[in-house]
Design a protein that fits this description.
The chain has 123 residues and is α+β, with helices and mostly antiparallel strands. Helix content is 33%, strand content 18%. The strands form two sheets. The protein has a three-stranded mixed sheet, sandwiched between helices. A two-stranded antiparallel ribbon has the order 1-2. The longest helix is centred in the middle third of the chain and has 12 residues.
């Protein structure tokens, strides 16, 4: 119910959102590929305590997140294009629309994946 108690499941254990402020530094780019942490209900609140807000406040330059819940497999083409753009030197903010252009939007799953994600922050 409260994003401040959320965590990201990483290979070496959970990263609690409440603990971000204790880290000496965090990654510049965050790509949250299979969840709905970009949903307005996650971004707003009395304390602006959403996961995206916490990452940006903690020093992230940009966060890519979906406004609706999207499953892993349906985001594969978008995420592949996004990472290729980043590897080619694009900023996170430029890589998102570039990756959208590579997704088959005539396929309903491709369409949802292409419109679900946004970049928050400058990237």
């Amino acid at each position: 119910d409260r994003a401040v108690f959320s965590f990201l499941r990483l290979s070496d254990g959970p990263l609690k959102i409440r603990g971000l402020e204790r880290l000496p530094g965090i990654a510049h780019h965050w790509i949250l590929a299979a969840c709905d942490l970009g949903s307005p209900r996650q971004l707003a609140g009395p304390e602006l305590d959403g996961v995206v807000a916490a990452l940006l406040h903690g020093g992230a330059g940009g966060v890519v997140a979906a406004a609706v819940c999207v499953p892993d497999l349906e985001t594969r083409a978008l995420m592949t294009g996004l990472h290729r753009s980043l590897a080619g030197g694009a900023s996170l903010a430029d890589a998102v629309p570039h990756a959208r252009g590579q997704v088959d939007t005539t396929d309903p799953q491709g369409f949802v994946a292409s419109v679900a994600f946004s970049c928050y922050g400058g990237g």
